[in-house]
Amino acid sequence: MVILITHQLQYLKEVDHIIILENGVIKAEGTYNDLRNSGLDFAKLLHDQPEEIEEKPEAQGFTRQGSVLSMSSTDEKTLDLPPGVDEQKSTGSVSGYVYSAYFKAGGNCCIVFMVMFLFILAQFAASAGDGFITFWVNLEQLRFDKQVKETLNTTKENDTIYDFNSPSNSVLNFTKIDSRKQSANDTSSLYDLFNFNRETCIYIYSGITIATIVISLVRSFAFFKTCMRASRRLHDTMFENITRATMRFFNTNPSGRILNRFSKDMGAIDELLPSVLIDCLQIGLTLLGIIVVVAAVNPWLLVPTCIVGVIFYLLRNFYLVTGRSVKRLEGVTRSPVFSHLNASLQGLTTIRARNFKEFDNHQDLHSCAWHIFL
């Protein structure tokens, strides 16, 4: 059995069974004579087909003329292609469906939550190292103060002379000294509970540092593995949809638009998106960890932090509105460059003879949008 897929109606007389498709839907089927008598709009083309001119060796010129007439009688109907569709450009912020589709392509919910947990755990380990350094420094300072105090008490225990008439030895001064001692005792109570020696502190800080490095490596490996899986699945899905698309899709979408999706857009998903996404998550969690550590040391520093945060949020909104629109404009103006590149190379002689500048105009428009984004 031989299956012939064609738009050439002159071959329909030679087939046994005909199936007429329109936008992927079967409109009619049957033999050649049945379709001629069916009265369908598309079947009317069968009546307009001229009879085949028998080739004769002595009349080759008339045969060629007859074939030209046959083509000219059906070119208006067989070449009635649908008009091209302009490339769509979205507006506003990126919808949550785009992010969810990307993460779903990378894996299921368990994998996504595991990667996010590794990000949080890595930042917690890094912040724990900073906090333990502060604890260690204060512990060494208290240990040094106690040694100095014990040394002074032992050397001056029997040689101290008080002048009760001096204002510095008044009752008020003794009250201040007692209050300072009370606050120092309250502060050192935590350090007395976790009174580690210097060797133990070194082991603890080394363990926190090693844990931070290991967790960060595992986090990066899991994140980039998820991004690679998402990129591969998105490419396979797009390629499968292209191979299963109807002829109308290729008639309404130029080849440059398809090449733009498979080259530049997939390149951005493969190379740019993972690095930008990991920087965004890592810097955001690092900033949050710094704010928590600073607030634990001095809560009053949260006031200028909130003011600076509001200023940066307003600057971010101002940049995203402009940058997102310019990036979308650059992506739309890139497709005509791909579309006219092959045609320009094939018709380079005609372009030079007639001085056509259509490709130059498309390239200049894309270059303008690209330099604005830079």
Question: Can you characterise this structure?
Answer:
The structure is a single chain. With 374 residues, this protein is an all-alpha fold. The protein folds into three domains: 1-51, no CATH class; 107-155 and 170-297, no CATH class; 302-374, no CATH class. The chain has twelve helices and two strands, in the order E-E-H-H-H-H-H-H-H-H-H-H-H-H. It has helices spanning 32-36, 44-48, 60-78, 96-106, 109-155, 171-193, 198-243, 247-252, 255-297, 302-346, 348-354, 358-373; strands spanning 18-22, 25-30. A two-stranded antiparallel ribbon has the order 1-2. The chain is elongated, with a radius of gyration of 39 Å. 7% of the residues are buried. The model is unreliable at 50-81 and 161-184 (pLDDT under 50).
Shape: elongated
Strand count, sense and barrel status of the largest sheet are: 2 strands, antiparallel
**What does the average pLDDT come to?**
75
* Number of separate structural domains: 3
What's the total count of β strands? 2
User: If you compute it from the alpha carbons, what radius of gyration comes out, rounded to the nearest whole angstrom?
Assistant: 39 Å
- Structural category: mainly alpha
Series of secondary-structure elements, N-terminal to C-terminal: EEHHHHHHHHHHHH
Count of runs of 4 or more consecutive helical residues: 12
Organism: Popillia japonica (Japanese beetle)
Transmembrane segments: 105-126, 202-224, 272-294, 300-319
Pfam families: ABC_membrane (PF00664)
Domain ABC transmembrane type-1: 202-353
